[in-house]
Design goal:
By secondary structure, this protein is an alpha+beta fold. It has seven helices and five strands; from the N terminus they run H-H-H-E-E-H-H-H-H-E-E-E. It has three domains: 66 residues, no CATH class; 57 residues, no CATH class; 46 residues, no CATH class.
Length: 235
């Protein structure tokens, strides 16, 4: 199955993804015109032109001169920073009195966020703003407070270790189109000639071989090659 020579449906009202930005960077290095990049990604021409224009950075050449080029990492960083400014204004606004009270209670007096708000409600303390526990936790995680962070929060009694999910960043060398963007007609398995590729690895620590498996979607025909050490070289 070729994923290089068809045009995707136009993706209207959708922001560029990190995968698409890496594709733009690779294709721009190959001196592909914005129109060609737009057709390859299924995007509008103006979207690609604006992306290339606003996210150019200066890179150092080997001869110590500088050149301007598009950088996907820099473009994604700017996009994420701008995204954080979206949404409604903070509820606490300019209520510095409330902010200082919360910081003092949690950092110095070792209160929990829920205990702080509970005390404010029980004693009828007068502040400009009223927030809930969930909002307070969100502000702490987002780094809204000057001297308060999630490191200052009391440790939970169960002492369970937090589990973090590793975010997998797509490989930069993306010249083709993701399998997720292939035409929906391929899913029907009515047309011969669409192949899928997979790598099957043997038992870890053993002498199991590594196989490259090619599967044709309609006929279920398979072609299997033995690989050397999970490289691109086949026997």
């Amino acid at each position: 199955m070729s994923q290089m020579h068809y045009t995707l449906e136009s993706k209207k009202n959708k922001h560029l993804t990190i995968r698409e930005r890496y594709q733009i960077e690779v294709l721009a290095k190959e001196n592909m015109k914005p129109l060609g990049i737009a057709k390859r990604l299924g995007r509008h021409l103006r979207t690609i032109e604006r992306e290339l224009k606003k996210d150019m950075v200066e890179l150092l050449n080997r001869n110590l001169t500088y050149r301007k080029a598009y950088c996907a990492d820099a473009a994604q960083r700017v996009y994420q920073e701008n995204s954080q400014n979206k949404g409604p204004n903070l509820k606490k606004g300019n209520d510095h009195k409330l902010a200082k009270h919360i910081e003092k209670k949690i950092v110095k007096d070792k209160y929990s966020p829920d205990a702080v708000l509970g005390e404010i409600k029980a004693k009828g303390m007068d502040f400009k703003t009223c927030i809930c526990t969930k909002t307070l936790y969100n502000y702490i995680v987002q780094g809204i407070f000057a001297t308060l962070s999630n490191k200052d929060l009391p440790v939970k009694k169960d002492n369970k270790e937090r589990k973090y999910q590793k975010v997998r960043i797509p490989h930069k060398n993306l010249k083709g189109t993701s399998i997720e963007d292939r035409p929906k007609s391929i899913e029907d398995r009515l047309e011969y000639g669409h192949w899928e590729m997979d790598c099957v690895v043997g038992k870890q620590g053993g002498s199991g071989a590594t196989l490259l498996v090619l599967s044709e979607r309609k006929s279920r025909e398979k072609i299997i090659y033995k690989m050397l050490n999970k490289t691109q070289e086949c026997v």
